[in-house]
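Structure (tokenized):
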């Protein structure tokens, strides 16, 4: 039931670590799995306090160290901002893959950081699924529906994907459905030059009702809704 073939997180911060799990399906501990994947982690951290800091100040750069450094200037090498990299290009598939070739309808998935369950959802409904890289020329494939997956990083880094969406929208003839989730949904805004802003905290006000929802992206497109920080 994994959602990918590897751990993509650069590190893990948790409050409590269970070294003796008792679930009947458990095959190894979290520590063993992370060690196999060469992913560092730290525990006994007040994650509630950390969450409050991130909520109030926004996403910030950081690193896991063995002990408190004597001075900030002693940190070497310098912290690299992952948002300066094209994270989508790093996690996307490198070639076209097809599942259930005789299925219908034909769904083309642009892999921006695809979860396996999204593939399962389409296959469970009898669809044919063609998975293509983030920079694939979408005018060169036949489909009944075009789906853009979730993924990491700044949507503006996916300039090739954005241009490919523009070409699809400008292509004459029948227009097939285009839809997405998370990052993929945001990319559907960018070909129309919709401005984006950074979110720290967000809440939605509708008919004098206030609702708090899970924020899974650090950016959002400007719409006619109100977003407060």
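Design, position by position:
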């Amino acid at each position: 039931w994994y959602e990918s073939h590897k751990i993509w997180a650069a590190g893990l911060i948790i409050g409590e670590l269970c070294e003796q799990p008792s679930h009947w399906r458990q095959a190894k501990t979290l520590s063993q799995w992370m060690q196999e994947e060469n992913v560092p982690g730290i525990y006994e951290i007040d994650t509630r306090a950390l969450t409050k800091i991130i909520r109030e100040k926004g996403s910030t750069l950081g690193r896991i160290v063995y002990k408190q450094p004597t001075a900030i200037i002693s940190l070497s090498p310098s912290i690299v901002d992952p948002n300066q990299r094209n994270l989508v290009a790093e996690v996307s598939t490198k070639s076209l893959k097809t599942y259930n070739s005789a299925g219908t309808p034909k769904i083309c998935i642009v892999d921006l950081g695809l979860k396996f369950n999204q593939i399962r959802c389409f296959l469970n409904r009898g669809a044919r699924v063609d998975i293509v890289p983030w920079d694939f020329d979408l005018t060169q494939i036949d489909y009944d529906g075009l789906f853009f997956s979730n993924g990491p990083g700044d949507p503006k880094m996916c300039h090739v994907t954005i241009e490919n969406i523009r070409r699809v929208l400008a292509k004459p003839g029948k227009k097939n459905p285009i839809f997405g989730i998370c990052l993929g949904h945001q990319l559907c805004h960018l070909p129309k030059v919709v401005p984006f802003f950074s979110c720290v905290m967000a809440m939605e006000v509708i008919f004098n009702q206030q609702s708090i929802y899970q924020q899974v992206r650090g950016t959002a497109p400007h719409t006619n809704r109100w977003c407060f920080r």
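Reviewer-requested clarification: The first helix runs from residue 30 to 37. The radius of gyration is 21 Å.
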